[in-house]
Write a sequence for this structure.
């Protein structure tokens, strides 16, 4: 049994980790550590976990966590994992960081987008970027995995096969118009995010200025092909879970839809968590809700010089806790699907 | 492995059965039979099941189903199970009927509330009423289980311990004000149930005239105590899943809240799917979403001569497919929790 | 033109007052006063009001407000209107208080339920309770109107005709099971009210302990008949606006539905904002959304000794700002419907 | 008073027309004609209209409608207005068609996208395209106005000022990623549009193949500048009302944001229903809900060669009934804002 602990357990990603790890089968769930909620019974913070996770939220003692756990999942505000990761690794634990601290490889980019010095650049160099389907080998050997952001997961899954094959035909900036459920904004109550103001409302935010834009550009360039420029345009949809990304790729001599579809089908053949939809089907967030699936479809308008790829995920599963567990499975040599094969919750 | 089949697989209860049975561990999922959708690929009818359940929906051939399956789950419109059950039992399968055909013990009541003759009264006499926590022994020995309605499940779980202990103090009709998510109305599109008319809307329906009222009265009388009159008042809430039942019990010499709470804690001690909430906690549907839990809490106003019990369930799980699987586990001698211990999906 | 001002304009009731007053026709809308938002442009606080209400939110200067306005609407946390009302009246303005400070006639009850001394008991004695359809004459002559709470409005409208006629037949405590949209909880962000935790969730709260319970009991006794005991059981529904109240009245020798319906039809004949539904129709919140209507229907189960009355309102209109404007119309001798005859927004 | 009638009154656009016309002030609302609902009381079809619109839905008698009304609003399935318009005009009425029959100027395009012959090409030539802010003069003199589609309204309002000024700098196909509430799909219940399947779901549909794509391309070319290619990508959002359009325009030598903003501010200065948002504000559907406003904002990423314009409308108001009334006001020489100056409903 893998002994696992969670730091930042009082947020939504933390709760989702508990859901997956408590039913994993190969994991013994240890400390659920939190900040200001430490000491409270789990069910006071998460009523749905009564009977699932007993006891109290623990204080965040990095040395203790690192000593008692084989793997620690970090679900912390950015900046907080910089020092924590080192201490956990020193104490002998492996780390899956669901936050942003080890995603951008360039410390200067980190400073620019997150507003602070990166104080753990050695670990930054070591960290594997945990988009599992694309970096499985690196993850397998890693002590520290940077779990991708929710938007970058959806976007990269939908774009990398296209760019790998046809990257040289892209003629201009790729537009990613992404829509997320509200849980992606975290659990902290704040102005503008009241129920009554988000419900029955659809709105853009942080257009062209979201921290996930450089993460996506970095990952799209990771294949080694020509660099792709990305314009990232996120929106908030009146729902709790789910991301739908629409990726618009201006192309010269665009492939046919069949040709493009074949590339995706081939690339993701055998991937247990990727479903490439064909025919008239298009991804929809609800078809992935509660599951680790990433659904993808493509369309092409050759006359207008445009390929379009769609992807849908559950932002808290494939976009956070699910992929984190998927990475843990890889890190510990388990079958990658262990504990993750739940069907989506529908309707 | 138990070989299971589903008839009526193209509805919401059918899909939910697939979700639970496909991850059950002790079940081999066979035919998914449907009516007008027969012949279609599963994923055309339920996109979320791509990769979960392969193949096509089967036509409904009772003899074949009965021969090939150890247990057949029926998720059919009322009336359709009357003949089907007999044929399935004759063919050697056991049956869990999620519909209404074997719930009311009195054929006259069936005729009155469902508007047709009951043509399988011998099976009616034989059927066990599958409110598992209360009829475990009968279920264990049954060939045919009548899975309770969603509202009766929530209501009976919240009232039976009170009536068992204090039934003689009830002074007038019990009012059950219940609120359900829309999935309880089934998958058939119809006027008045359009998204735009239910969304941001809360409304009562079938007040005092719902078919679940006699089912609840029957089950509350099943304990052998004094008969309780029930006034059942259902409502539709703008959400997909969940039932919240508030049961108002007029009482002379009402027990204290502590006394009543102790009765519930005692009665449900050790029940893996019942959580009796204490302190300031109250049930909420979301804390049970996607799980087989039934959450219960009690309040008492002695000055006003009133006890109140609340329960929350997921109408498609404990109120339908989950309890059906729970009953199957009991029927086949498995641990009752097999395949059912998933944590709720939150948020 | 009536010069009107609003104190507490940055909350939801404040915004709703702006919506109605800006299109009223007989009102000149003056200062929109606020606390911590004072000095900000209206459209920074309420983007939807761009082009509707210009300028900045004003600081709350009671003397100035009282001097410049003919009527001041107070939409303040409880306690804050106690001193403000006196200063506004002294300065010559009339006051419609949408808060709770002048609703309970008994200062001891105020202390018990709101936790502070009532320091304006002379005004308390003077204030008219603004359930317009029932206290029109008092409102017409009042300098100070206590606008009823949202739940008490829905509940009293649904119960008073019954009690007026049949109050002596009530045999036990009346149960009011009420369901409200989230806007009733105000604009302040707080734990437990995050979008992701209320969405797709239905839950009770403050069962038997809500501050509106004594207000309802007081108003039901106002008719002079026998006192009615009320058990008030509020719930939160996953929607922004709307209240649906179900009132369960245990009765000996209950009238027939037709008889009871006739009482309601007679009592509310000619009332422009009350719609008594007959036949199979039942109130639903969406049919009142955005309007000042109160929809009512009745049902009777004589065998079970129970009458049931339902009412639906928009909590921010008939339950707050709309009724406040209705009261203003009465206070200033305008036609009561002036500026209020908007059709509901549907779907 | 203008005598107005509605054909197709039993749908959502019909109901919305009733809402606006019943409170218009200069309109006498006559027949509400319907198809299969004819003969039913208005409040049976639309409970929210009890007390607002009395009487029964009328049968659709074109000659009678044309004779008794000064203006007839058509809210019909496409194809049905082809013959109706002629008969109404012959009878002396003017016509505002909310359907698609007179939007595409080219009968061949009509055949291609709507699948039938256009049998009223003379009227097609005569019809004014009722995007009021852009074709005010044509509307003023028209007997027949083709009210724009909801998506084309949002899209054209957000793109025309840019193209007018900078059309020659556009380098590739414009991508319009639009998100609509469900009411845009009409009132007819159908598979895939059940509440439980759209709620908590976000999904694309008809990508690059929606009938509004040629309508948008036609209108963007109407300015006389270089033709713009449009790729139209609609999505369904889990809400009832609202459209948010994000328009991505690839540009060489893109103007600065300030420059582009100035163009929009100038073009829409004095327009009562257009709000150009500046600073950090972005359009959101809820800020327009229930109103005739169109909110617009722009962003520019010069490094990536991209201008982005956003617009938000209520699809049933500015996208349908509200703009139809706006056009009627213009046709009859009234102040364009008559009866339309309602503030949005928020929250």
């Amino acid at each position: 049994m893998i002994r696992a602990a969670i730091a930042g357990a009082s947020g939504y990603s933390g709760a989702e980790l508990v859901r997956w790890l408590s039913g994993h089968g190969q994991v013994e769930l240890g400390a659920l550590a939190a900040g200001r909620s430490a000491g409270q019974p789990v069910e006071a913070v998460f009523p749905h976990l009564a009977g699932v996770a007993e006891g109290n939220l623990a204080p965040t003692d990095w040395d203790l966590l690192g000593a008692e756990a084989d793997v620690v999942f970090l679900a912390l505000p950015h900046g907080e994992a910089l020092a924590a990761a080192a201490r956990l690794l020193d104490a002998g634990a492996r780390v899956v960081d669901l936050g942003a601290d080890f995603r951008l490889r360039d410390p200067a980019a980190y400073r620019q987008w997150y507003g602070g010095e990166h104080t753990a650049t050695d670990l930054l160099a070591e960290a594997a970027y945990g988009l599992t389907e694309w970096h499985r080998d690196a993850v397998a050997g890693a002590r520290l995995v940077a779990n991708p952001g929710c938007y970058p997961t959806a976007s990269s899954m939908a774009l990398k096969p296209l760019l790998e094959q046809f990257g040289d035909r892209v003629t201009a900036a790729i537009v990613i118009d992404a829509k997320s459920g509200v849980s992606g904004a975290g659990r902290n109550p704040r102005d503008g995010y009241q129920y009554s103001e988000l419900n029955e409302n659809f709105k853009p935010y942080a257009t062209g200025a979201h921290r996930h834009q450089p993460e996506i550009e970095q990952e799209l360039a990771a294949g080694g092909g020509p660099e792709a420029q990305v314009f990232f345009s996120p929106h908030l949809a009146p729902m709790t879970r789910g991301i739908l990304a629409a990726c618009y790729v201006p192309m010269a001599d665009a492939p046919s839809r069949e040709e493009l579809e074949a590339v995706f089908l081939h690339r993701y053949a055998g991937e247990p968590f990727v479903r490439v939809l064909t025919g008239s089907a298009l991804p929809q967030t609800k078809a992935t809700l509660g599951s680790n699936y990433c659904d993808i479809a493509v369309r092409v308008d050759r006359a207008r010089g445009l390929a379009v790829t769609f992807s849908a995920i559950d932002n808290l599963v494939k976009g956070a806790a699910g992929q984190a567990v998927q990475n843990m499975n890889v890190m510990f040599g388990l079958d990658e699907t262990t504990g993750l094969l739940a069907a989506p919750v529908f309707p």
Chain A has a mean pLDDT of 97. Chain A touches chain D through 51 residues (CB under 8 Å).
